[in-house]
Design brief:
GO terms for molecular function: mRNA binding. InterPro entries: PPR_rpt (IPR002885), TPR-like_helical_dom_sf (IPR011990). This protein has seven domains: about 70 residues, no CATH class; about 55 residues; about 90 residues, no CATH class; about 110 residues, Serine Threonine Protein Phosphatase 5, Tetratricopeptide repeat, CATH 1.25.40; about 80 residues, no CATH class; about 110 residues, no CATH class; about 220 residues, no CATH class. The protein is built from 38 helices and four strands. A two-stranded antiparallel sheet has the order 1-2. Strands 3-4 form a two-stranded antiparallel ribbon. It is flat.
Length: about 800
């Protein structure tokens, strides 16, 4: 059978037309601005092209004829037959093609713009053209003056509306746009263009933190695409990117500024964009900070004839050289650069000597040169030298472990250079006393130079000046507050060294043989170099020293260390304080030894007559099982009721007052929640009434809502918690409504209430809420009253709650003068 003839079927063949075929179909001399969009050309029938010069016997038509033919083509209606369709493809990967969705994506791939942006630009151009045509018609119609006025107004509007971005130095940037990129990777460039086109970017001339962050986000994403054709990035875009990424101003955080500047400067160098003088200096500094120190210094040297000689960059150039060479350790070159600045006709920045002082102090054997540079700086600054300058110099010498020079700088600050202590075996009385050293230690601790403060302590003791316990306790507390494990070890070692000094003093005072106390937890060397003897502190520990360490051991759950500290406290013949007792009770509770905590409390208060305070009872209530265990044991909860009532009785009878607003807010709340968890509803009502008389306590609305929900912390926004909050709010609103309805029945208007009536309402709602929790909201008062009286007797507040004995209330009131004023507020 002969082969079947091949038939070309438009309906079954692929609609893909390759680029080379399309190029061969296009007329050779067709002008690009006469071409219609590809999709439209494909759908419309082709009109005869105008004859070209290559056609024999035919001439190229006149411009008027060509314009007429074009108008006819544009006005020709769309044919109904659209059977011919052209599809466009792009290369998604080597050897793989991806079909474009529509004409908009085709225009986006070829133009590098989103369809939305391209539409907006086309619309704006059309409006501008229409406006200019209207003005031309007005001029031809004889309204020359009106047309000129409108033309000026139009230009003014364009300047206002399309003036672009304004930099911090009033420099103006036009409509920023990076064009000429197409293909599948042009999307990052389009995103960068969208960012540059935002009106909110750099509004007012000063970049915002969000501007800096998003600028680097979009630019870093577009770098790979831009690197394929750096020349397509306009100069104005480079300037704008530099202005934003290199910005460093007040209120704008730019922690990665130098890294961004370094990368941007490398990109601009690759693009062949020349850097301005200020940009070259910043790029050199960024190169140095990013680790290319040798290259940065070489670049700085090469610019000596340009940047180093121009008046506008002279000072910045040589200051940069001083800083870089000093950090690199090239102190000779840094000093030469500083001399160039100091000898110039311009008033120099004398503080540029600080980097040289720091570099010389860190250099072995150059400490004297560092001191000489400091003296020169002090002389040049004169009265303009500030306390901050002295602090920086002192820190430099302390870091170099040259305490004598640091002390001399501090003496210069305090006495204006009138006293010289260098090289003297005995310090003058105005300096060699623990009051003066205490001022220095206080300042060092205040600025956070804890290592320097410790070196001062060691130096002072070697010079015969023993630091006071207050000063060393301040250093220990600062070490512990820093949160560093190394500082915690230093604090521990210094504290135990002070404790050993206290024990030695006690043994001498008792005229016994001096036996050095061996502390099994004492740390070894604390700040001295290897091979040097351990620093033995001569300052004796005080109760505050023990309190600091007790709080630290309790927070770190070091129960054994805390027990050892408490034992040593007796040997040191320092009476146990309430604070130490509270820390040990809390430590026992955290360690799960609740019985030991209660036994310690009974021993300290009953046998040793130690007075508890509000923090003691707060710790005791928190130690009960209902506050410690996730799953509540009914037997333990019953024991907690007895213990809770006993704690409340001791709290009322003990002689103490509130010392801080925090404990004033925490203690009543903890008492009520503890009784609620233990389901001691009778004790809860009695406690609320007693605290009303003794604490001036009235439950706030937030506490009522927490009690209604049964949880003290509803900060996590889960669905269950939100449901409980809504239910609790409804319960409170119902109880408030019931209370006000009762007032209305008694003749009250119900709505307008005084402040005193609102407070009484909160107290009443609390009791109604407790009765609701107990399921006794409908119980007659005659049945509830005997139960409350029994609980009041057990809690030791019957005379206060039911008899309203003014003498007992005044005797057991826990409000001092300050807390009384706070309670009234």
């Amino acid at each position: 059978m002969p082969p079947r003839p091949f038939a070309f079927d438009l309906g079954r063949c692929s609609s893909y037309v390759c680029k080379s075929c399309l190029d061969s179909l296009r007329p050779v001399n067709a002008r690009p601005w006469l071409a219609r969009p590809s999709s439209s050309v494909a759908r419309k029938p082709q009109s005869p092209l105008p004859p070209t010069n290559s056609d024999k016997g035919q001439a190229f038509p006149e411009p008027a004829e060509l314009e007429r033919m074009l108008a006819e083509e544009l006005e020709r209606p769309e044919p109904s037959d659209q059977s011919l369709q052209v599809n466009f493809f792009t290369q998604a990967a080597p050897g793989k093609l991806r079909r474009l969705r529509d004409n908009e994506e085709f225009g986006e791939m070829n133009g590098g713009l989103d369809a939305e942006i391209e539409t907006a630009i086309n619309k704006m151009e059309k409006q501008m053209v229409d406006t200019m045509r209207m003005l031309d018609r007005m001029e031809k119609g004889g309204a020359q003056d009106k047309a000129d006025q409108l033309r000026k107004q139009f230009k003014k509007t364009l300047r206002v509306q399309y003036k672009g971005k304004t930099g911090p130095e009033a420099e103006s940037y036009g409509l920023l746009r990076i064009a000429g990129f197409s293909g599948p990777r042009q999307r990052p460039v389009a995103n960068l263009n969208i960012f540059l086109a935002r009106d909110s970017v750099v509004r007012g001339g000063i970049p915002k933190p969000k501007d800096v962050t998003e600028c680097w986000k979009y630019y870093s994403a577009a770098r790979k695409t831009l690197s394929t054709a750096w020349e397509k990035v306009p100069q104005e875009a480079w300037n704008f990117l530099w202005m934003v990424l290199a910005w460093q101003g007040e209120g704008v955080e730019n922690p990665n500024r130098m890294r961004h500047v370094y990368i941007l400067s490398k990109d601009m160098q690759a693009a062949g964009v020349p850097l301005r003088d200020s940009q070259q200096l910043l790029a050199t500094e960024a190169m140095f900070i990013e680790g290319w120190q040798d290259e940065a210094i070489e670049a700085w040297k090469k610019a000596v004839a340009t940047l180093g000689a121009r008046p506008e960059t002279f000072e910045a150039y040589w200051e940069l050289g001083v800083r870089m060479c000093a950090l690199r350790g090239d102190t000779a070159r840094a000093q030469r650069a500083a001399d160039t600045l100091l000898r110039s006709s311009r008033p120099p920045n004398i503080r540029i000597l600080l980097p040289i002082i720091r570099a010389l102090a860190a250099k072995e054997g150059a400490i004297d040169d560092a001191w000489e540079s400091y003296c020169n700086m002090r002389v040049l600054l004169g009265e303009s030298m500030t306390i901050e300058d002295y602090d920086e110099v002192i820190a430099v010498f302390l870091t170099a472990n040259s305490v004598e020079y640091a002390l001399q700088a501090f003496v210069d600050m305090m006495f204006s250079g009138a006293i010289d202590i260098r090289g003297k075996t005995r310090l003058p009385l105005t300096v060699g006393n623990h009051f003066f050293m205490g001022k220095w230690l206080k300042r060092l601790i205040g600025v956070g130079d804890l290592d320097g403060a410790y070196r001062v302590v060691v130096y002072s003791q070697r010079r015969g000046i023993t630091a006071s316990p207050i000063q060393l306790n301040g250093l220990i507390g600062a070490w512990l507050r820093s949160g560093s494990a190394e500082n915690a070890e230093r604090a521990d070692a210094l504290a135990w060294s002070m404790i050993r000094a206290r024990l030695g003093y006690v043994e001498q005072r008792q005229r016994q043989e001096l036996v050095r106390f061996c502390d099994p937890y004492a740390a070894t060397e604390t700040g001295e170099g290897e091979g040097e003897p351990e620093f033995v502190c001569q300052t004796r520990a005080t109760a505050e020293t023990f309190s600091l360490m007790a709080e630290n051991y309790c927070a770190r759950r070091l129960h054994d260390r805390l027990q050892e500290l408490f034992k040593v406290l007796k040997q040191a013949e320092i009476g146990p304080t309430t604070y130490l007792m509270n820390q040990l009770i809390r430590s026992y509770s955290h360690n799960g030894e609740t019985e030991q905590a209660l036994r310690l409390y009974q021993t300290m208060t009953k046998e040793q007559n130690m007075a508890p305070d509000g923090h003691t009872f707060l710790t005791l209530f928190n130690s009960l099982s209902v506050n410690r265990l996730m799953q509540r044991d009914p037997d333990l909860a019953q024991k907690d009721i007895t213990a809770c009532r006993g704690f409340f009785k001791d709290m009322v009878e003990a002689d103490w007052t509130f010392d801080t607003p925090e404990i004033f807010a925490q203690l009543p709340r903890t008492v009520l929640f503890t009784m609620l968890k233990a389901k001691d509803f009778r004790g809860m009502i009695v406690a609320a009434r007693a605290m009303r008389e003794l604490f001036a306590f009235h439950p706030p609305e937030s506490l009522l809502l927490e009690l209604a929900t049964g949880s003290g912390s509803m900060q996590i926004k889960t669905k269950r918690n939100m449901e409980r909050l809504v239910a609790g709010q409804k319960t409170i609103e119902t109880l408030v409504r019931q209370h006000r309805m009762g007032l209305v029945r008694q003749g009250h208007r119900g709505m307008e209430m005084t402040e005193e009536e609102k407070v009484d309402e909160l107290d009443e709602v609390l009791e109604r809420l407790v009765l609701l929790k107990a399921g006794a909201q409908d119980a007659p008062r005659s049945e509830v009253q005997p139960l409350l009286e029994g609980a009041a007797h057990e809690m030791g507040v019957y005379d206060i709650v039911f008899r309203q004995d003014a003498g007992q209330i005044a005797k057991h009131s826990k409000l001092g003068k300050q807390m009384a004023a706070f309670a009234d507020v």
